[in-house]
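> run fold ROK family protein
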Amino acid sequence: MHTDLVAALDIGGTKIAGALVDGHGQILVRSQRPTPAQRDGETVMRAVEEVLGELTASPLWERAGALGIGSAGPVDASAGTVSPVNVPGWRDYPLVRRVRQAACGLPVELIGDGVAITAAEHWQGAARGHDNALCMVVSTGVGGGLVLNGQLHPGPTGNAGHIGHISVDLDGDLCPCGSRGCVERIASGPNIARRALENGWRPGPDGDVSAAAVAEAARFGDPVATASFQRAAQALAAGIAATATLVEIDIAVIGGGVAKAGDVLLTPLRKALGDYATLSFVQRLAVAPAQMGTDAGLVGAAAAALAKRTDAATV
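> ok
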């Protein structure tokens, strides 16, 4: 059988996307459903099966040699289970087994969504050509993934590089994860907006209280909005510098909704990085915006599936 394609699933709290992807990262067939996130686990799985049903109905399906899943986490790749925070019906849900059944027995590779986006950026995006990279997703939460020695480094359970839960403020706010002063508690979109509101920022006539609205206010020089982004940038810089010091990355790629703030985030981030990444071997660390956009999860899941297929072929 000629297997030159892989299937990919990108599973999050708002959408379940699927695709058939070739060896160059091109999406040839795609399917999507809204995630029924507040429904029971079987209802969520039915949406996954509908997406897979559209893929298996394609004449290209028979060329798929493996399937990659990038899922909101936590995931446990060693057990094949997922427990996405924003999908309460799935707790230790046996996603790999259920997907394998729906995908006609294809080999399945599961990684967290931050790791999937990292795989995409390393394969086709801003981290291309870098052997040691950290890619971050700064949005409702803060996730990430690592490339070390030219290889994706998901770790045993698929969660390595989860920079959002490095503590950067020892006496900081309690984070929902149970720790204190986490990067996510300071730098995620909702926390940027919350801090701005607590410090006296007021939204415009449209009442928009999102991080995007705070970014727009900062762009026009609002001091409270600017300060909230500077605080987020400082937390991100501390987390990036800690990671770079630990494993010697040479680029940090920043994606996710909050990264759309552009220079409002990146300028203070680069400045703060100079304050934290001070040792000689981390001083040349580059910071770049992500390039892969909304298809990053699918392309990264495909990259993981291609790697699994290549590994299997060389055994």
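The longest strand covers residues 15-22.
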